[in-house]
């Protein structure tokens, strides 16, 4: 089952979901660690480059994820969800998808406007060009702040999303978490 | 031959340790003894470097504090000696964060190694006004043999100037951060002027 069914997720959605989840968690840890003030400068440089390469990977997968989400069908909500819960769920999922695009794009923008002008050399394989934005210290501060706020906002939303999934699984004993773990014939 | 080019030619011959040509002697060109001697490298010198980056461009900068001498042998250019020290703390690139990064333990580690030193071990004439300088470069506690190409750019009784170029592999000096985004090769492009001592 590659595609989503009437009340199941397909493998494409499941694989994208968990790959992006791991990337987001790793990028948050990397992003936090690499900006620690006491970090060794060589390690810091290398962590920044890893962060950028994984960040571009996340952006690519998130674009596919959003297109797949827009193009495919959405499985019906599990039984027992109130209207308000469905609205909240839709709002959080929509916001999550928006942030998974906005966070890497603001990161790309900040790398592009930085007066350090460090090329984005994707896994030391191919240069990803900077966005056509003017480099300045002010622009770098603005995009850095936006990137950090959106990233930590995304982290908070991911925690909420994960807590809700665990709540459904352990308290309500419904299929919300399980159906994102494996695809089933409907 | 203009007076100017005669002076240059005489200077080159002097540097190369050649016996002055009779025609030049008759023109009262500077003698061998005039060029020989010790010159102190002065502040008008430009110690520029560039490290290329993937996709074009790179980091360009200069060092503003340095010192050194040319000791030109009157008989044999091969016996001449160049000594040069620079203080990497004074690196300038136009971006303070890059300068601080270069001063840090990632690159120069200026706190532990405040001085970079070059001392020539062999100078070989390669052309009318050119020579190759081989010597020991000591940076960040490591000494390696490096080569630079020098071209005489000016000379008179008090001042001598060379355009000196050469590439140095930074991996040899425990400064390999940023490869392959930034080139391993640091290209030096220097105008080194000496005042006669």
Description:
The complex is a heterodimer of chains A (186) and B (197). Chain A is mainly alpha-helical. Chain A has one domain (11-180). Helices cover 66% and strands 3% of the residues of chain A. In chain A, a hairpin with a 3-residue loop joins strand 1 and strand 2 (126-128). In chain A, 19% of the residues are buried. Chain B is of the alpha+beta class. Chain B has one domain (36-196): Lipid/polyisoprenoid-binding, YceI-like (Lipocalin, Beta Barrel), CATH 2.40.128.110. Chain B contains four helices and eleven strands. Chain B has helices at 3-15, 22-26, 32-35, 96-103, and strands at 37-41, 46-53, 58-63, 66-72, 81-86, 91-92, 116-125, 130-139, 142-155, 159-169, 182-196. In chain B, strand 7 (116-125) and strand 8 form a beta hairpin. The longest helix of chain B is centred in the first third of the chain and has 13 residues, at 3-15. Chain B is elongated and about 45 Å long. The two termini of chain B are 30 Å apart. Residues 5-10 and 12-32 of chain B have low confidence and may be disordered. Chain A binds chain B through residues 40-42, 45-46, 49, 115-119, 121, 124, 127, 129, and chain B through 53-55, 57, 95, 97-98, 101, 104-106, 177-178, 180-181.
- The top-level CATH class of chain B is Mainly Beta
| SSE topology string of chain A | HHHEEH
Distance between the termini of chain B: 30 Å
Number of domains of chain B: 1
Determine the N-to-C terminus distance of chain A: 9 Å
Tally of helical segments of chain A? 4
Number of strands of chain A: 2
Please estimate the helix content of chain A: 55-70%
Specify the biggest β-sheet of chain B: 8 strands, antiparallel, barrel
Rg for CA atoms of chain B: 18 Å
CATH homologous superfamily title of chain B: Lipid/polyisoprenoid-binding, YceI-like
Shape of chain A: elongated
Question: Which band does the percent of strand residues of chain A land in?
Answer: under 5%
Q: What structural keywords apply?
A:
heterodimer; A: about 190 residues; mainly alpha; two-stranded antiparallel sheet; B: about 200 residues; alpha+beta; Lipocalin; eight-stranded antiparallel β-barrel; 4 helices
């Amino acid at each position: 089952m590659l595609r989503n069914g009437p009340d199941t997720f397909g493998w494409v959605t499941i694989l994208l979901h968990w790959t992006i989840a791991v990337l987001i968690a790793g990028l948050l840890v990397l992003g936090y660690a690499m900006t620690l003030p006491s970090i060794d400068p060589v390690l810091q440089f290398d962590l920044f480059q890893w962060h950028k390469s994984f960040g571009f990977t996340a952006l690519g997968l998130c674009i596919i994820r959003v297109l797949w989400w827009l193009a495919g069908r959405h499985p019906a909500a599990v039984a027992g969800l109130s209207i308000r819960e469905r609205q909240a769920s839709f709002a959080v999922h929509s916001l999550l998808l928006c942030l998974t695009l906005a966070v890497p794009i603001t990161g790309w923008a900040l790398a592009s406007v930085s007066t350090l002008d460090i090329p984005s050399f994707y896994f030391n394989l191919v240069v990803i060009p900077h966005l056509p934005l003017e480099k300045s210290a002010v622009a770098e501060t603005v995009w850095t702040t936006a990137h950090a706020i959106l990233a930590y906002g995304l982290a908070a939303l991911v925690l909420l999303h994960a807590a809700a999934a665990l709540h459904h699984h352990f308290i309500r004993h419904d299929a919300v978490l399980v159906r994102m773990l494996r695809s089933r014939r409907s | 031959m203009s007076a100017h080019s005669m002076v240059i030619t005489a200077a080159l011959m002097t540097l190369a340790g050649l016996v002055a040509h009779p025609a030049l002697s008759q023109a009262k060109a500077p003698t061998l003894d005039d060029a020989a001697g010790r010159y102190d490298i002065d502040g008008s010198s430009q110690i520029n470097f560039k490290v290329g980056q993937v996709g074009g461009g790179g980091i360009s900068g200069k060092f503003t504090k340095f010192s050194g001498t040319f000791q030109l042998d009157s008989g044999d250019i091969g016996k001449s000696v160049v000594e040069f020290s620079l203080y990497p703390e004074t690196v300038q690139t136009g971006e303070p964060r890059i300068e601080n990064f270069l001063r840090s333990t990632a690159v120069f580690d200026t706190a532990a190694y405040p001085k970079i030193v070059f001392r020539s071990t062999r100078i070989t004439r390669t052309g009318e006004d050119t020579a190759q300088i081989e010597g020991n470069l000591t940076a960040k506690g490591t000494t390696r043999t490096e080569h630079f190409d020098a071209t005489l750019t000016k000379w008179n009784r008090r001042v001598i100037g060379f355009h000196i170029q050469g590439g140095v592999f930074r991996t040899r000096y425990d400064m390999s951060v940023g490869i392959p985004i930034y080139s391993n090769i640091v290209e030096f492009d220097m105008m080194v002027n000496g005042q006669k001592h």
